[in-house]
Amino acid sequence: MAMDVVDYEVFGSEMQYVEVELDPGEAAVGEAGAMMYMQDGIQMDTVFGDGSQQSGGLFGKLLGAGKRLVTGEGLFTTIFHNEGTAKRRVAFAAPYPGKIIAINLAELGGTLICQKDAFLCAARGVSLGIAFQKKLGVGFFGGEGFVMQKLEGDGMAFVHAGGTLKAKTLAPGERIRVDTGCVVAFQPTVDFDIQYVGKIKSAIFGGEGLFFATLTGPGKVWLQSLPLSRLANRIVMSAPAAGGRSADQGSLLGAGVLGSILGGDDD
Amino acid sequence: MSVVAERALPAVAGDKSFAGRLFGPALAGTGVAAEACWRADGGLRVVANGRELLAAAVKVEASGFNAERVRLSWYDDAAAGEYAFFVESPEARAICGQNAPAAHAAKLRGALAAQARTDRRFRLGWGVIGAVVLLPFLLLAIFAFNADPLARWVVGHVSPEQEAVLGDMTLAQTRAQMTLRDRGPAVDAVRSIGEKLTAGSPHHYRWFVAERDELNAFAAPGGVVVVFSGLIRAAKTPEELAGVLAHEVAHAELRHSLQAMAKSLGLRALVSLALGDLAGGTVSDGIARLGELKYSRDAENEADREGLRRLLAAGIDPRGMVGMFETLARSEGGVLPDVGKEKGNAGDPASEKTDKAAAKDAEKAAEKKPVRVAPPAFLSTHPPTEERLASLRQLLATAPTGQAPLAIDWAAVKASLPQK
């Protein structure tokens, strides 16, 4: 599969969009609905499935589409193809506050595991697949569920996550403990596991839930500071219609109930 | 100690090398593509970025996402760091396994077993979850195939007293839908025939005549028998009425309506279990539909045979049963043509058509399980099929004849019904 090499530029600070430059004949695949604008000369083509297998036959297309449904994407992918003779640009916008990260899959050995829904756009040729989390404990308590996305190929892929993103390179054996839900993406050589917080007092009152996610190197990992669910939770909490009920972070007696009584409505 | 040498070399020679990705000190954090091969002394030789690394004490384990990869790692004193080589593709893993020194082969197998274990647990876990989700559907399937014996078993645990309570409920509901009369010449005629048919029954029977033109009669559990006045008008002799009564009494004695209710209730309970609708009302709803249940074809045949037996036991001429059924079959929409003429409006093609359509709709509704046919039309709940008539005639051929006619002044009974 020929990979298209794309140049790109990320704009904005907290609510970003990425502008991808396509040479004549080049193409990019975007998450349906993510396109923000495109220049003249770019043809938009919506395909059933993930757009990476242009000649996969009906069954292949159905399978690809089914996979996309499981990972929470739409049934269709949009391919943006530069039909002109000059370089053209197309922009994809992030759907919620956060950062867009550009990942060169070739540098990572061709595969990246990321949380479902994280995919924004990629050079044509990058395939989107499912990576099932097979460790039951991690699936239930790791914060990412059982279904993750697998990006495969040698091109550029753009992934989006909430808040500020931290890219961290772990040396062999180096381990980092992460709040569940904050893991965005990692190389498949990274061991993704969970660890009990250790003390029952911490588990109940610490506000971090019962488990940490642990990432053990070697490899590169990306963490987000603000998972969308947490942001949504806060918004719902402060919405007058919701009555200020909190369920933040799995803490049984956390900041929510007591906080709303003691702290007023300034959180 | 671990790393013996680090020299510039082109590549690992031979087909025994396997590809992978190397991580370690002074290498890119995201790893570099590398090739490795086992050495005779149990060490590992890795070539990455055109450089050769030699490792002596290699640790073998399953690692990475889902423990999908084989990780060969060693500590490098000179670089003061750990190196990790990941065998990625299945082909590379096969070569790695085939050529591994004896000391590592067992660990490699262990790594693969660990991976298989993760896989197995994953499948087992989802299997359990799937089973929990599918269990109600499984129960539903079992129920669907064994509904009759199950219903019979359940009904066997219902006492006649409990049945009478159900009868009272049905009676109360029927009274809300239609006028029931419990005295008068028509009721007396029904009672006198009915008591002959139900001699020795544990149930306390109550007989009613409803002011309705439909050709219908039904028996609710607990011995509540309701005959529609339309049926009495249509019956040419008291024996014909006796035939229908015998059939209905047989339904009650055989507890067909209870069984149908048990089936419908069980079905609904299971359906709500399977589909998650646990919001009450199941039981009350089931009682509400008690009078509207459809009997199965087997139940109808059984009631025919039992009714016939009861007619003979009571010394009533059983030919009335067939006569009445033929009348019913001919009457199509449930209103006899001659009755229609008498009334002057039912013969009107439009109303007959609507009657037919209603009967058809009722039949369609009856095909779907919990039925709502109010009030039940005899033709939709008791389809007088050719088979039924044929089997009845066959039974009659061997039945004794010469019964005395019923001592009822039939013309007076008919005349006592309100004229319309």
From TrEMBL, chain A:
A Pfam family reported for this protein in Swiss-Prot or TrEMBL: AIM24
InterPro entries, alphabetized: AIM24 (IPR002838), AIM24_sf (IPR036983), Trp_RNA-bd_attenuator-like_dom (IPR016031)
Organism: Rhodocyclus tenuis (Rhodospirillum tenue)
Protein name as annotated: Uncharacterized protein (TIGR00266 family)
